[in-house]
Amino acid sequence: MDEAAAPSAKLLALLDLEAAGPDRFRGYSPKSAGRQVYGGQAVAQALVAATRTAPPDRPVHSMHAYFVLAGDPTIPIDFAVERVRDGKSFTTRRCHAAQRGRTIFSMEASFQRREGGLTHAAAMPEAPDPESLDDLHALIDRFHGFLPEEAENWVKRRRAVDMRIVAPEAMLSPGRHAAGQLIWFRVQGPLPDDRATQSALLAYLSDMTLLNTALVVHGKTIFEPGLQVASLDHALWIHDAPRVDDWLLYAQESPWSGHARALTRGQIFARDGRLLASVAQEGLVRLRGAPEA
């Protein structure tokens, strides 16, 4: 991947998998990746692989994934797609991602021919306009005394994403806070218009900041050395066609944690108030050195 390319171009290149045989694909991680493959990358690349085997007139509407092993960003990821079913209205695909011959990630995705029907949706919560909020680089300067170096590196690796946090003190400063947060985000384009690419990018972004919602209530962040934090599973339902180069509001909450696990949920809204997607994720949140129950 060309590290000199524009940030959005790098993100698109990340999703441009190589063909490696019938229903087989290969993906790569950016050189600027951290110690493990970012979970949203695995979700998005697996979705791209599955989408390439599905009818083009059936956009994805849901996916359910499990993170089996931590991925190594220094070596390629091999994706194998199983064509589970092609029905009159729905298409089902199963995708396995492997490194060194071992499965690191698995996902099942469903695609649907567009239909009409009864409609209703949750209302978007009130939030200040994203333009009125500090960007991430301004927040680094504001909270520099509280942020570990790893947190600042995390921000630098996501230059393609413009993110504005409502009430950032809950994420970036010590102290207990409510188990919920509101975050505006968008990809800084240009981006193609096709729905498959926009959906894959939404899948990539849907894993970002979600587990931290379970930590803010305890006055902690994912960057603390005393914590082991990792995604265990991830579910995404796409209700309507997204545009990730427009501002989206990610409303996140964590209704429960215990037994070294935490449940988080999210709703993603378009700026005009439409509910575009729903997310659920359980993650490992383990205190290092804590005794077993």
UniProtKB/TrEMBL annotation:
InterPro entries: Acyl-CoA_hotdog, Acyl_CoA_thio, HotDog_dom_sf, TesB_ACOT8-like_N, TesB_C. Residues 174-284 form the Acyl-CoA thioesterase 2 C-terminal domain. Belongs to the C/M/P thioester hydrolase family. It comes from the Bacteria. Keywords: Hydrolase. Residues 33-112 form the Acyl-CoA thioesterase-like N-terminal HotDog domain. This is Acyl-CoA thioesterase II.
